[in-house]
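Minimal example, chain plus alpha-L-sorbopyranose.
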Amino acid sequence: MSQTLKAAIVGTGFIGPAHLEALRRIPNVEVVALVEVNQELANEKAKALGIPRAYLFDDMLKQDDIDVVHICTPNFLHFSQAKAVLLAGKHVVCEKPLAVKIHEAEELVKLAAETGLVNAVHFNLRYYPMVRQMKVMREKGELGEVYSIMGSYLQDWLFLNTDYNWRLEPDKSGDSRAIADIGSHLLDITEYVTGLKITEVMADFSTVHKTRLKPLKPIETYSGKMLTMDDYQEVPINTEDHATVLLRFDNGSKGSITVSQVNAGRKNRLNIEIAGSKSNFEFNSERPNELWIGKREKANEQLMKDPSLFHREASSLISFPGGHNEGFPDTSKQMFKEVYAAVATGKQPENATFPTFADGLRELIIGERIVESNKKQAWVKI
Ligand code: SOE
């Protein structure tokens, strides 16, 4: 008999409802509770989202029937909330970044290991089936030796100086913005697919809008486009809109990434090109069902997502036949399938297939070294 696992979601900005929708698409999981900053908002959002119970955070933790808590709040809350969830004996899925400071993430990794509870960080972009296919192809030798890596992650939702969000405020978001928010996904995928470790970074940041016009009422991620021009206040901006980082890897190869949140027309585009001794892979998250495979000795190839054309280890992330496109919402669904399989066993697997708190810590360390490199304008070791 299959047991239904019960989940709570904390936070209802852009990503909380995405977690909810993904959870509703996997079997034997029920989202029973929603948490917000005040009871009135929790009630209102729970009703709108069709979630039966609404709580403040501490009251939710006291509910014995809740097995898993998804932390979908602004970054500065991740550490204290993830810690409290683990101490309450519940499994936790935390949004990235795992924390804003390395020592906090270290504490969470240690605590999670001590409790044995399932811990995951929502690096969901790993779960595009094509990303896993690239990893498996590389493991099977189809890429060859990695020569170089070139990545970019471009968005335009902060393009105008009137675009505003809590991510622009370091006390809520941390000292880095573009690198922490989207560079972290790209760097995670880079190491995940290639199996290489970044050993040194050299970064150069720019803040295109040195000041922005902050709306006098709160708004949610991506929703700023719907505002009008009234009621703004000019505020200084101290985090990067754009960053370029040179990378050195542990096999001696080199690479670079560019991330930007002010590139008009690039809505949410992660692009990675990995040049190997046998092939060249190029993946673009705005066309996630395709992979370009560059060849020297014959015509280049275009692989379309199709379980019958994929390696078995990657086809497990596909739910629909070829030609039936899957995209961003499916990544979280596929990730949660793996996380909840672990939850059903009651403990973190030794070799988790999903991104763990240890992966969250790794991205914080790389991110902090990148910030340091930009400050010093020098190479920094990881
Ligand atoms: C906002 O920039 C954001 O929502 C990121 O926080 C996500 O991780 C990314 O998936 C899309 O953009």
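The first strand starts at residue 5 and ends at 10. The two ends are 47 Å apart (CA to CA).
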